[in-house]
Amino acid sequence: MKRPAIAVGAGLGAGALALIGVLVLFVAAVANGAASHQQEQEAAGTQVSAQGGAVGDIPAAMLALYRKAAPASCSGLDWSVLAAVGKVETDHARHPTMRSSAGAVGPMQFLPSTFRGYAYPVPSGGATPPSPWDPTDAVYAAARMLCANGAKAGTQKGIYRAIYSYNHADWYVRKVLGQAKAYAAAPGTGDGSGGAAAGSSSAIVRAAYSKLGVPYVWGGGDIHGPTNGGLDCSGLTSYAVYKGTGGRVALPRTSQQQRFAGVAVPRDEMQPGDLIIFNKNGWGHVGIFVSGNTMINAPKPGRGVETAPLSEWSGYEWAVRRMT
Question: Is-contact 201 191, C-beta < 8 A?
Answer without folding.
Answer: no
